[in-house]
Amino acid sequence: MPHSSAVTSASERLHALDAVRGIALLLGIVLHAAMSFVWVSPRFWIIQDTHPSLILSLLSFTIHVFRMTTFFLMAGFFARMSFHRRGAGGFVRDRLQRIALPLVIGWPLVYVPIALVVIWAASFPNGGPLQEASGWMPALPNFRLTHLWFLYVLLELYVAALLLRGAIIWLDASGRLRAIVDRLFASIMRNPLAPLVLAIPIGIAFCLDQRWVNVMGVRTPDQSLITNAQAWICFGTAFGVGWLLHRQIDLLRILERRWLPHLLLALVLIWVGFVLSGVMISAPGAPKLPYSFATLRLASAILYAPAIWMTTFAALGLALRFMSNFSPTLRYLADASYWLYIIHLPIVMALQVALSQLDWPGLIKFAVILLIAIPSMLASYHLMVRFTFIGAVLNGRRAEKRVLPQGGIATA
């Protein structure tokens, strides 16, 4: 009986974590749909709507804080699970099929329509390529990975994890070093200050980057095949935390118990960071803060780094607390999220350009974008992907009844 109970408990937690992974991808669609309405200057999206929204600016800022860190933590967690289930050879083959192949095939299929939408946006007063951006024709090492950069970074992290694991196994045949690392990690996770400890590396990286402002979050490597230091530090740390959490899965109970304090502190940090970002004070007539840019940037870095981990832990804790039971709806959305995220960007961008000049409130336009994009993409998933070879590539073979998450980036 104790063994059965333990298996059930683990299964429930895996349902929650797979839901988090899917929600993180779906939040990316919401984030990108809100980008044209962000109230900030200078423009940083392919078009800025004629009716920017302070609410959507806050929504964009909030999602950007934690979404990819949460995703890469889940990727590390399920990577270790997949490695020990499939073995090294099976893991490599699986990742080549479900990560490398979608990147190689999917990139040209989304890049061409994205470039066409950018050209279309250039015909409007506040749209088109950004002045500081490099050319849109791919040229090594500058290579626009677009929103699929996360697949490229995943592949890098898989290689790094396999090499590091091989080196540790070779150097630590007795297992003493791994036992020490496990004890140290467990002591960090049990400490209420864990988000602050994990925030130290990326906080230092923010402070050392003189161009960094918190509205951009972690610099994403979407324009180069050379992954930048901030992405390696933040997302690599998250991947490692996920890997180590799978070694001691009972540590997830701590995140579940602390979901409320993590959430409250995260909301405070996000709100203060949003004010400091200058998004709010860029509104016409708003007073300027009596502080230098360097002072605001330093304060933002000090607050933004722990906000990343506080919000990530809050998201995991919420899921573990309220989404641990199997839900057919969440299971379906988790399966669909990979396909939806791959194809969404040109669709969302085209809708943003089409609606940008209409004299409608920004919130209404935002809702229209989502109400058109998401149902149509879900229909394409159900009709073209879910029960076809494409679905088998992305999510693995389907089974009528699955207790544990099996497919897609769920096992990344």
Give structural notes:
The chain has 412 residues and is mostly helical. 69% of the residues lie in helices and 0% in strands. It has one domain. It contains twelve helices and no strands. The radius of gyration is 21 Å and the shape is globular. The N terminus and C terminus are likely disordered.
Low-confidence stretches: 1-9, 283-287, 399-412
- Please report the total strand number as a whole number: 0
Order of helices and strands: HHHHHHHHHHHH
Radius of gyration: 21 Å
Pairing-aware structural class of the strands and helices?
mainly alpha
Number of helices: 12
Q: Please tell me what the overall shape is.
A: globular
Q: What is the overall pLDDT average? A: 87
The biggest beta sheet is recorded as: none
The tally of structural domains comes to 1
Helix content: 55-70%
How much strand content do the residues show?
under 5%
Q: Give the termini distance in whole angstroms.
A: 31 Å
Summarize the structure.
By secondary structure, the protein is mainly α. It has helices at 2-34, 54-121, 149-171, 176-190, 194-208, 229-247, 252-257, 259-276, 293-322, 328-355, 362-385, 389-395. It has one domain.
Please render the helix and strand layout as text.
Blueprint: H1 2-34, H2 54-121, H3 149-171, H4 176-190, H5 194-208, H6 229-247, H7 252-257, H8 259-276, H9 293-322, H10 328-355, H11 362-385, H12 389-395
For the structure shown, list the relevant keywords.
412 residues; mainly alpha; globular; disordered N terminus; disordered C terminus
